[in-house]
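Final report, section 2: Outcomes. Of the targets proposed, 3-hydroxyisobutyryl-CoA hydrolase is the one most frequently requested by collaborating groups, and we therefore present its record in full.
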Amino acid sequence: MYPAGKVISPCHHSSPAVSSRLRSVFRLQRIQSHMMSSHVDPEVLLEKVGRAGVITMNRPKVLNALNFTMIRQIYPQLKKWEKDNETDIVIIKGAGGKAFCAGGDIRAVTEAGKAGDSLAQDFFREEYILNNTIGAYRKPYIALIDGITMGGGVGLSVHGRFRVATEKTLFAMPETAIGLFPDVGGGYFLPRLQGKLGLFLALTGFRLKGRDVQRAGLATHFVESKKTQLELQQFFFFQRISTFCFVYHVSLSPPIRLFSASSVEGIMQNLKADGSEFAKKQILSKMSPMSMKITYKQLQAGAALSLPDVLVMEYRLSQACMRGCDFYEGVRAVLVDKDHNPKWNPSTLEEVSDHSVDQCFSSLGEKDLTF
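The predicted structure is given below as tokens.
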């Protein structure tokens, strides 16, 4: 028997998989040992600059990927600054010039899932609690999304009051390519974008760049990268940010309307029938069929839910993914072996039953996410 409370994927119960599980334990121990090393630079810098609290994600070599240690540093500091009368605003940014935050530390989470380690539960639980805290923050929260902003990085920014894009911003939610779904509140903000833009971004992982991030409504402001220096953050953003709030509307082009269908299969049929260059570029056939069906239902449901309720739903989905196979296979294919040839199970949309999708949304009882 596996220890109570552990998350074990049914794909890892055979004898060869026991050896795989042991290797995962050792890899996870090495990752955790590295995270605790006193010889590495701080992964998050927390400082006060005047009356501004400034958070700097400081893992530039891995594009500021968000790990569990960082979540546990950022959350209590946000709560402290929210109550501090000497703190007027909070600014969050990434170090290194290439990325705000390229996503969560997915490799550590998958190793934990294969090893039966509780990080597979704790990471998602505490990340989503942090996302909700940002969404409900009582003081101006300014995310400088200067560079790559994906997955977990989106969760650290999009729910805040102000999101400042630059010409270097690259925004994406690429989770269906690794057997996951657009989490960190994706079920809340994506269906609230104009038309079917959110569903398009969710299913395809399409990358928005520069001003398009603001035009889509994902950023509230656009500033040239060279003007986001710290000395401007206090004065320009806090004192004058409301003056420079431009509203853009995305022109809903006909190709996006191909994503107006009552099912993922319907979208695939629309793309095939259209035959345009746009349609040919949408490589949905390479995405996890289970992930796409989960994502479709997630956005449908999330359109009518509050952010906290969406995050409760997404926590259930995260644990369903940890119990399944596609998440591990997607991470292997894209991030580990990098052969980009995942073997999805089920392998086609037609093999994904409505019942199997519905099960992913089922309550976890006392293990459900609570705020």
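Confidence is low (pLDDT under 50) at residues 1-10, 239-252.
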